[in-house]
Design a protein that fits this description.
Blueprint: E1 7-12, E2 15-21, H1 40-52, E3 55-58, E4 63-69, H2 72-79, E5 91-97, E6 103-113, E7 116-121, H3 126-133, E8 142-146, E9 151-157, H4 161-166, E10 183-188, E11 191-196, E12 205-211, H5 215-227, E13 232-234, H6 236-245, H7 261-264, H8 279-285, E14 292-299, E15 311-314, E16 319-329, E17 334-342, E18 351-356, E19 359-366
Parallel strand pairs: 3-13
Antiparallel strand pairs: 1-2, 3-9, 4-7, 4-8, 5-6, 6-7, 9-12, 10-11, 11-12, 14-17, 14-19, 15-16, 15-18, 16-17, 18-19
Helix pairs in contact: 1-6
């Protein structure tokens, strides 16, 4: 179905997913190179569509887990660093702490019932995270299972996403009835879904998780309803741009066991007044000053954007850090990057150099994300 719609596909740790969608007359395969390629304009079209109206993103390659039973809450609290949501219908973001106190993973945990939780995390790290899940014995009467293959999902995001979805459900999506970081089991176009009001785009949006057998029916209904609003499918390249211009980190790029929570900006989600896996390791480093800090860059680039791994230098040539993610921010008109700067090297407002394709490009360290820095659209 996505191929018929012009989808150009890529692989992510075994998951095939659409990178972008070609319009009629556009090539349906990518050119190869290090400068901006043939997908650059189509991806910009998808970003602008979502920011101005709405977009529908296939997020089936996210890892999903189910935890059920009377010991579910205590097991999750013993595993994750944040405190688990206490009320049904609430969600939280939480780090998983590694053996040396670094960030071993980041997850969204949703309480679906008194003794039932859903976890959403990185699809590419599912096998890696199993070792951490198995480190805490399950209490009697409690089950844990991966539902990644059994469930599919879509993120419907953008300023008209509420109106679009409201066409397909009787559940009120008004802000007072369905606030940010809340969840409900609802029916959308006749399909039972777990709806979570969260979006990796940094815009108003909902994640809709359904049984794999309902995937096509739900996707078709969303696309059909979206036509009225000028909304359509969005691929993973656009999602990269959307999350970078909002300053959102990603597992394997900004978040990894190499970085401490206070370096990656996740320390506010670590609760010192509870026990969790590898807490002792975290306590050893919690008071340490950051060795490096996660920051954003606005880069003076015109033919190629940073993608990750590019070195960052001070203007006198002193090595200062490296890029972890990069993309062109179409809705803000800037070439952007996330990366780590060594402590004491540069601060917001300073000029640095980012080496892209072996050439230094001037860049400015930003003090806040260029798109919706106050998070008003997320909560609108």
């Amino acid at each position: 179905m996505q191929k018929q719609m012009g989808g150009v596909f890529g692989l992510n740790f075994g998951w095939e997913h659409p990178l972008w969608f070609a319009a009629d007359g556009e090539p349906r395969e990518e050119t190869i190179g290090f400068t901006r390629q043939n997908w650059w304009e189509p991806v910009g079209r998808e970003v602008r569509m979502l920011r101005e109206s709405a977009g529908i993103i296939d997020i089936s390659n996210f890892a999903k887990y189910s935890v059920k039973g009377t010991g579910a809450e205590s097991w999750l609290n013993a595993l994750f660093a944040n405190r688990m949501p206490g009320a049904i219908g609430r969600s939280c973001l939480t780090p998983l702490i590694g053996k040396r106190g670094g960030v071993a993973g980041d997850f969204t945990v949703t309480r679906l019932g008194e003794d039932e939780f859903m976890i959403v995390g990185s699809g590419m790290a599912e096998r890696f995270h199993q070792r951490f899940f198995k480190a805490i014995p399950l209490p009697d009467g409690t089950s844990f299972a991966s539902s990644t293959e059994a469930m599919c999902g879509f993120n419907v995001a953008g300023p008209t996403s509420r109106e679009l979805l409201q066409r397909l459900t009787n559940e009120s999506l008004a802000n007072e009835d369905f606030p940010f970081m809340r969840s409900k089991r609802i029916t959308v176009a006749g399909v039972d879904v777990v709806a979570i009001r969260v979006s990796f785009t940094g815009d108003l949006g909902w994640e809709l998780h359904c049984a794999a057998g309902d995937q096509v029916a739900l996707y078709s209904a969303l696309l059909e309803a979206g036509r009225e609003f000028g909304a359509g499918p969005v691929g993973s390249r656009a999602l990269m741009s959307l999350r970078v211009e909002k300053g959102y980190g990603s597992w394997g790029r900004e978040y990894s066991p190499e970085y401490w929570p206070q370096e990656s900006g996740l320390d506010r989600l670590v609760k010192a007044d509870k026990e969790f896996l590898n807490k002792a390791a975290w306590e050893k480093i919690r008071e340490n000053a950051p060795r490096e800090s996660l920051v954003m860059f606005e880069i003076n680039a015109t033919i190629a954007d940073a993608t990750g791994g590019e070195p960052v230098f001070l203007t006198d040539g002193t090595p200062a850090g490296q890029v972890s993610s990069g993309a062109y921010g179409y809705s803000v008109g800037k070439s952007l990057a996330l990366g780590y700067l060594k402590a004491g090297t540069a601060k917001p407002g300073d000029t640095v150099h980012v080496a892209i394709l072996g050439q230094n490009h001037t860049a400015r360290v930003l003090d806040k994300p260029p798109f919706d820095p106050e998070g008003k659209r997320l909560r609108s």
